[in-house]
Request: fold
Amino acid sequence: MLRMLGFLVLLLPLAASATDAAAITQQGNGKGAAPCMACHGPAGGGMDINGYPRLAGLDAAYLQKQLDDFANGTRANPVMQPNASALSEDERAALAKYYSALPLPAHPAASAAAKPGADGERLATRGDWSRALPACTQCHAPGGVGVGANFPPLAGQPAGYIASQLRAWRQGTRHNDPLQLMQHVAKQLTPQEIDAVAGWFAAQPLPAKGSAP
Reply:
């Protein structure tokens, strides 16, 4: 009996962490952080019409880095900075784990802003070496399903979100990439190419529901 009680005590912090993360997504933390679901949807699938990204199934280390960067001002965003700053370090870590464990949506939402075309596919899958521009899929994996903590999934993300981030890299307003890789890539793209690449990735299918990228 005592052994069983000891085991339950060990589980309590894990259960509290999971409960807290779920509660924050639905209700906020009562200390200035708004409910995550207000922008990212009840299941973390994002909101295409507003360009809010999918969080479900993303790498936990990637998610935590982004939250930490918003909190410390390394990554700028008028919505995310105050919300991440209102979260404790433990809350940011719990949220990252929570969202990484959520299943992927069955299919990306249809996007009126997504305009997949030849230029988008060519640049995403082959790049343009005459401009020292590598293919996006060389880092983000075939189909844009993502690789580890540094190269997040692009497939099925809202076209508006992908394009806004590429413009931020291009303008230098976002600069939390490893070795400044994205800054170099984005500066090689024209505004039209940014929209084409964003549209192509937004139209790509996600892995089967319940699987991770």
